[in-house]
Amino acid sequence: MRYFSTFAVVFLVSFLAACSDHSISIHESSEKSERSIKSKNCTSINPCLIKKGVKFWVDADTPKPETPFGIMFKFEEPIDIQTAYLEGVSMYMGKIPVSFVKEESGKWRAEAMVGSCNLAEMQWKLRVFDSNDDELNFSPSIYTYR
């Protein structure tokens, strides 16, 4: 009987230890906080002038995969954005359609969401086409961070 109770206690302790998730505390303590990540994105505070008369920015400093974020353009000259898509540079993950809507004179906005991958930082290229289906001669980058 004594061997059975010892075996039961050892089994129970082993089972509980094996089923608990010790990686959570290690992972959370070693994970970089959002504030420590240096973003390479253009933001509304610091938009990029990607070409004369064309400003570009995203509404989140460190966009996350599988979370919607805004993409904005401001054009000095009138332009009509017909279609656009995001394409992975760091890792090809297909073409993700992006639909821009004209908000005001020269300002265009879209909401996008990208898939997650195993990279801590993922670079995406935004390809933009006008009403003649011609690609505009700029392709800004967007970076997402896990």
Short summary:
This is YtkA-like domain-containing protein. Helix content is 18%, strand content 36%.
Secondary structure layout plus pairing:
Elements lengths: L1 H18 L3 H8 L17 E4 L2 E5 L10 E7 L5 E8 L6 E4 L2 E4 L2 E6 L8 E10 L10 E5 L1
Give structural notes.
The protein has 146 residues and is an alpha+beta fold. The protein has a single domain (34-145), classed as Immunoglobulin-like (Sandwich). The protein is built from two helices and nine strands; from the N terminus they run H-H-E-E-E-E-E-E-E-E-E. It has helices at residues 2-19, 23-30; strands spanning 48-51, 54-58, 69-75, 81-88, 95-98, 101-104, 107-112, 121-130, 141-145. The strands form two sheets. Strands 1-2-3-7-6 form a five-stranded antiparallel beta sheet, with no helix packed on it. The longest helix has 18 residues, at 2-19.
Overall average residue pLDDT: 84
Structural class: alpha+beta
Topology-level CATH name: Immunoglobulin-like
Shape: elongated
Low-confidence stretches: 23-31
**Any guess at the CATH architecture?**
Sandwich
Strand order of the largest sheet: 1-2-3-7-6
Q: Can you identify the CATH superfamily? A: Macroglobulin (MG2) domain
Keywords: Signal
Protein name: YtkA-like domain-containing protein
Please supply descriptive tags for the structure shown above.
single chain; 146 residues; alpha+beta; Immunoglobulin-like; five-stranded antiparallel sheet; four-stranded antiparallel sheet; 2 helices; 9 strands; 36% strand; signal; YtkA-like domain-containing protein
